[in-house]
Specification:
With 76 residues, the chain is mainly alpha-helical. The protein has a domain of 47 residues. The protein contains 4 helices and no strands. Helix 3 runs antiparallel to helix 4.
Amino acid sequence: MFFLGQWADGPETTALRSSALFMKLESPHARVHDLARQAALTYSQGNTAQTESLLSEMSQASKEVVGILEELQLLV
C-alpha cells in the first residue's frame, strides 16, 4: 500500500469517509495503480507506444486524484 492508501485507511480520515467527495477518490486512485502496472508490463514487452499512452492516461487519473484531494483539503 502506498502513502495515499495508508492515509485514506488511517485514523485521520475517519470523519471524511462518509463524504461523497472522499468516496470519489477510490476509482481514480485505483486507476492510477492499474495503469501503472499496465505501463510497466507494456514497457517490459518493448511496446513503448502503448506505454506512452498508458502513462498519459495515468497522468490524467493522477490529476483527478489531486483535484479531489484539493477539494477535500477545503473540508478540513
